Amino acid sequence: VVPGETALAFYKAKNPTDKPIIGISTYNVIPFEAGQYFNKIQCFCFEEQRLNPQEEVDMPVFFYIDPDFAEDPKMAKVDLITLSYTFFEAKEGQKLPLPGYQ
Question: How is this protein organized at the quaternary level (predicted)?
Fold first, then answer.
């Protein structure tokens, strides 16, 4: 992906169970310092997703890397950015804790 240009990627998710699952995704960018330059325009992670029993889906993310990435001396040796997702079942009424806080 060239900084400043948009890109489209797909992530595959499968519900291997015999019951429907409603889930949500969180994402991670590695290296951490590159995360400030990663911008999602549209993402499946913005909303809960329903997967029916045994259903497999391709979920899109439309994104770009901020052009300032190429000008940041701290990013000079970064030639690979990894975007990963964790998909987990949403629980009605459950509040997720803030990282680092009790």
Answer: Interacts with CNNM4/ACDP4. Interacts with RANBP2.
Distances (CA, A) of 11 to 67, 70, 71, 98, 102: 24, 26, 29, 26, 32
Cβ-based burial of 61 (10 A; exposed 0-12, middle 13-18, buried ≥19):
buried
Is residue 15 domain-resident?
A: yes
- pLDDT reported for residue 100: 58
The reply to whether 102 falls in a domain is: no
pLDDT band at residue 55 using 50, 70 and 90 as cut-offs: very high
Percent of the chain with pLDDT over 90: 49
Helix, strand, coil percent content, the chain, rounded in steps of 5: 15, 45, 40
Tell me the three state secondary structure of residue 53: coil
Which residues, including other chains, have CB under 8 Å from residue 93's CB and lie 6 or more apart?
Answer: none
Number of structural domains found in the chain: 1
Residue 41, C-beta contacts closer than 8 angstroms, at least 6 positions apart: 6, 62, 63, 64
